[in-house]
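Issue 218. Parser rejects a valid record. Input:
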Amino acid sequence: MADAAVSDESQSERVQLRRAQAALSACGVEGVVRAVERLKGQSHESWRVEREGAPPVVLRIEPSRGILPPYDLPVEARLLQQLARAGIPVPEVLGVSSDLEDPELTGRAAIVIEWIDGDVLIRGQLQADAARAYCETLRQIHTLDWRAAGLDWLPEPPESGPAIRERAEILQRLHSFGVADLPHIKRLRKALDGRVPDSPAPMLVHGDVNFGNVILHPGDPPRVAAVLDWEQTHLGDPLSDWGRLAAEDLLGNLDLSAGARQVMTEALRRYGRSEDDLHYWTLHQLYKHSSATGALIVLRGWDPDQIAAMYAEPTDRLLSQ
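Output the parser choked on:
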């Protein structure tokens, strides 16, 4: 039995190496693949790929069915290239394929980007100097002149505002996975009914600003080396990003020192927005987060009762404000 397990593991590794080699070739990236490592993440398949005599790269492959569709890696590659020219810290795009030829991956796109060395912010407690670098980069994204940067191909929000558009997209995803009527999700949706925040003229919004998507170069002071995972980027309200951070904090997913929390509070204050607007976007992002975990109930078999319990106390706290 042990020999069979080793054999199965070796066969799986060979398949992964073959798939990675084929995907790199389809993206026009040279090099002989000698090792692959699956990276964390719930959206795309992401792999660190080691090549003989060449630097490592990251291979990202669209999922057959993901938690926050739609996915379009060629569009994300175009966005990354334009952001890089505009001075936003992002990985370099090395290659793109709109349709992989591997029989197991037919119809799925892929991109290859450079591997960025550094510290992922999610690891360890965030200190004040790192929080300052993070907030400065977030502000750089939000205040980018997206028209001058050539990003006017991104759709602008409707007259009803970005919040209404995003909520419609979330509800559509919930229905597609059959989880729209789970009690904890219905509670969050009902709390949003009839509420619309005051939003400024459209600004660039990353859409997934969790600390796991930011790589920091250590130093004095530290600086952001790269911001990753731009598949949810859109034109909208920058408080959507801040609401995501606040929701992650409520869920206990942020480890902030007292100094880091003060830095982030001061950075948010400079946006000049009301507490009501931030409260709305925090609730909105908790709802969006619940749609992602709701999809994982279907895709990964997560326990719906445990998921519901995760949202109970954060929702209580928000609705009591």
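Fixed in the parser; the record now loads. Strands lie at 33-38, 45-51, 54-61, 93-97, 110-114, 119-120, 203-205, 214-217, 223-227, 234-236.
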